[in-house]
From TrEMBL:
The keyword Transcription regulation does not apply. This is 1,4-dihydroxy-2-naphthoate prenyltransferase. InterPro entries: UbiA_prenyltransferase (IPR000537), UbiA_sf (IPR044878), UBIAD1 (IPR026046). Gene3D superfamilies: UbiA prenyltransferase (1.10.357.140).
């Protein structure tokens, strides 16, 4: 079956170009930004409602959005140059929405995308510097972690191209962990064990649904020289890897509860997440990778709701 893709000429309409830039920035994918809601819920009740808290979280959100815009902009440029986006999206346009790749769809030129990405990278670094400057606390580890997250994001598919060098899965979980721990530490001066557990559970969500994308993209990524676990091992071995990573999240929930790092009721609260994880794992094993990915995305968003509930209840009972 073939698909006929209707696209605008690059820059042919001001409205169309603005929409294309929004698609380049992937503004519809907000999953990393949800960590700030978890951070807010983890704060002490009095600190939660301070105007300064809302101001810092709003500035952090803006910094995250701009850095991600740079990251995915450079990623699209690299994917367009090496042909992996055309290979991964062109054959499945109806399900994967080719328009989300404006360079492949022809709604932006590479020069436009480059200007946008470099501008976003500079603005994102400046905004994160402003976040640190405005924070009531500046623990050294949090400042360093913030800088690492910015640098790694910009070089995800550009410069060092860490997602091409075998570090994609580490980055996907690491960014979510960093963007939970950093704002919490800047607001409070440190992080408890329960905060770290929540950060890891949050950060593992984008990694898990990213693994399904890697499964679907393995042939195109392999042809482009992009190293992921999916390109290095057989399909059955990668399914086992996904199962192990999914199981690790479930084990963390049980272990944190058993060890007392999380409240004794924490595992019970997280049971809906466990059910969704098992569901997308089984669907993925049966071969419907994109459906499994959609469920994994929803599972991540359910995780946020459950973590917020757990944090609010823990704060109210402490």
């Amino acid at each position: 079956m073939s698909y006929r893709i209707a696209v605008r000429e690059p820059g042919s309409s001001g409205h169309g170009t603005l929409a294309a830039y929004a698609r380049l920035a992937k503004l519809d994918i907000y999953d990393y930004y949800l960590g700030l809601v978890v951070v807010w819920a983890l704060l002490a009740p009095a600190l939660r409602w301070e105007p300064r808290t809302f101001g810092l979280l709003a500035l952090t959100l803006l910094a995250e959005v701009v850095v991600v815009a740079a990251m995915v902009g450079f990623d699209d440029i690299t994917g367009h140059r090496d042909g992996s986006d055309a290979a991964n999206y062109g054959s499945d346009a109806a399900r994967r929405r080719l328009a989300r790749k404006p360079l492949v769809a022809g709604t932006l030129t590479e020069a436009q995308a480059l200007r946008f990405s470099w501008t976003a990278a500079a603005a994102g670094a400046a905004l994160w510097a402003a976040v640190v400057a405005a924070a009531p606390y500046r623990p050294a580890w949090a400042v360093v972690l913030a800088a690492v997250c910015v640098a790694a994001s910009v070089q995800y598919s550009w410069g060092l191209k860490i997602s091409y060098r075998g570090f994609q899965e580490v980055f996907l979980i690491g960014l979510g962990i960093g963007w939970t721990l950093v704002p919490y530490a800047l607001l409070t001066g440190g992080a408890t064990g329960f905060v770290v557990v929540q950060a890891v559970l949050f950060g593992s969500g984008p990694m898990l649904f990213g693994l399904y994308s890697n499964t679907s993209d393995a042939d195109g990524d392999r042809a482009a020289g992009r190293i992921t676990v999916a390109t290095l091992v057989s399909a059955p071995a990668h399914r086992m890897f996904v199962a192990v990573m999914t199981g690790a999240q479930i084990v963390l929930i049980a272990a944190a509860t058993a060890a007392g790092t999380a409240p004794r009721w924490f595992a019970a609260v997280m049971l809906p997440l466990v059910a969704m994880r098992v569901a997308h794992l089984l669907i993925g094993f049966r071969g419907d990778i994109l459906r499994a990915r959609r469920i994994a995305i929803h599972a991540h968003r359910v995780t946020v709701v459950l973590l917020v509930v757990a944090a609010l209840v823990a704060g109210a009972t402490s």
